[in-house]
Amino acid sequence: MIDALDSLRETLAPHYDVEREIGVGGMARVYLAVEKHPHRRVAIKVLDPELSTRLLRERFIREVDLASKLTHPHIVPLFAAGEAGGLFYYVMPYIEGESLRHRLLRERRLALETALHIAADVADALAFAHSQGIIHRDIKPENILLSSDHAVVADFGIARAISAAGNLSITQTGQSIGSPGYMSPEQAFGMPADARSDVYSLGCVLFEMLAGEPAIVALNERLIHNWAALETSPALRRAPAGVARAVKHVVSKSIAPLPDERFATAEAFVAALGGTGHRVSTPTRSVFAGRRGRWLVAATSVVAVLGITTAAIVLRNPTLAVHERRVAVAVMENRTGNPSLDNLGFMAADWVTQGLAQTGIVEVVPSVSVMSSAMHTGEPAGLRDAAAIRALGRATGAGTIVSGGYYQQGDSVRFQV
After folding, report:
1. Total count of domains within the chain
2. Staple partner for 379: which of 72, 84, 150, 388, CB 3.0–4.6 Å?
3. What is the mean pLDDT of the chain?
4. Quick check: is 311 in a domain?
């Protein structure tokens, strides 16, 4: 943005004294300014030029105006929106303090009480916005501001304003409405997002505050859940066993792959944390009766988040010296002929793994262990023949291997597991 500051100062001079740039993000630059009437310090966010060229001015301003009606102690209000020199901007109060991202960069991990307090504040904000029909769609540490021992959430309604004003889908080439490390599976695949999508993002944030690492990480350029980091969190290891178990339950339920498996509302998330006192409630252990075949139903239901049909085939070798009730899910084989869809196989395998783990019926080998074992055996993480399946079973100690692939049929992707 060459001479962007000078251009902005000139264009907004009748209403604002723009002082300096104070931040930059994925879709916007942030400037500190003083509004002349009324006299107050504000932050002006100016959208990326490439994005601005794709938006309709009237619709963007109208959507921001709707979001500006949100009034809540944990929501940063929106004052105004407009266009300056072909660039779209919106105005909000300048918040003294720092973003959660800056604090995590400085401290890496937060104390348990602090993390739960921040999560509860954000959930309160989400609950109110959801009651008004507004989904945030971009909850992440950068949009959580810390001031006076409280957390406030910025940019409510902005994702919807950008999407509506440009008729953009959730993800676009070169631009992303939402952040990959915090985006729910359904949002990542362009499906409708509701309150449970924001709950997923908040669960990822809580995970990161406790573990010091993102909930979703790349392994060999593939995305998987980073459960090991949460298990070794100092904050949880120092906490009473019941509290630590309950917090991990809240996190795992929040970032469940299927929306129906998450907390249905932000209020339910807060209740699980114990309300404003942050006394985390201990979850009741689920009881599943009887038949071993139930885990297969769970596996196919997890894959259903993609909106596809499945055919279930379980490949087993009972002669191996392995644990009969231990299950490993191999990376799904890409049979579409489109290399850009390779990552879908890793994501689907991880979702099936997490779905099976949450049933509590069988022991499930973590995705990271499956891929690590495949690397050591020299076999691909996605299995093509019986020999590779047996090798993975021996390497992971799993008596049951779930394997499969996906192919393209028209405009849809179908899985065979």
Report:
1. 1
2. 388
3. 78
4. yes
Q: Does position 321 have pLDDT exceeding 60, yes or no?
A: no
94-115 in b/e form (b: 16+ CB < 10 A) is: bbeeebbbebbeeeebbebebb
pLDDT at 385: 66
Tokens of 306: 């993609």
C-alpha of 263 from chain center: 14
Distances (CA, A) of 323 to 222, 229, 363, 365, 376: 27, 25, 9, 11, 20
pLDDT band at 42 (very low <50, low <70, confident <90, very high): very high
Is residue 278, in this structure, part of any structural domain at all? no
Is residue 49 within 8 A of residue 81, CB to CB? The reply is no
What is the average pLDDT across 25-32? Answer: 84
- Residue 383 in any domain: the answer is yes
Return the closest-CA partner of residue 255 out of 310, 307, 190, 186: 186
**Beta strand 87-93 with 40-47: parallel, antiparallel or unpaired?**
antiparallel
In a domain, 167, yes or no: no
pLDDT in tens, 284-306: 443 223 333 443 444 444 444 43
3-state SS class at 32: strand
Picking from 184, 155, 152, 156, the residue whose alpha carbon sits closest to that of residue 171 is 184
Question: In the annotation, is 138 catalytic?
Answer: yes
Name the residue among 361, 364, 342 with its Cα closest to residue 353.
Answer: 364
Q: Residue 394 belongs to a domain with what CATH number?
A: 3.40.50.10610
Confidence of residue 107 (pLDDT cuts 50, 70, 90): very high
Q: Is 374 helix (H, G, I), strand (E, B) or coil?
A: helix
pLDDT of residue 178: 65
Residue 133's Cα: distance from chain center in Å?
20
**CB-based contacts of 71: which residues, under 8 Å, 6+ apart?**
77
* Catalytic position from the list 48, 121, 124, 138: 138
Three-state secondary-structure class, residue 172: strand
Q: Quote the pLDDT of residue 412.
A: 59
For the chain, give the number of residues: 417
- What is the rounded distance in angstroms from the CA atom of residue 42 to the CA atom of residue 154? 13
Name the residue range of residue 397's domain: 294-416
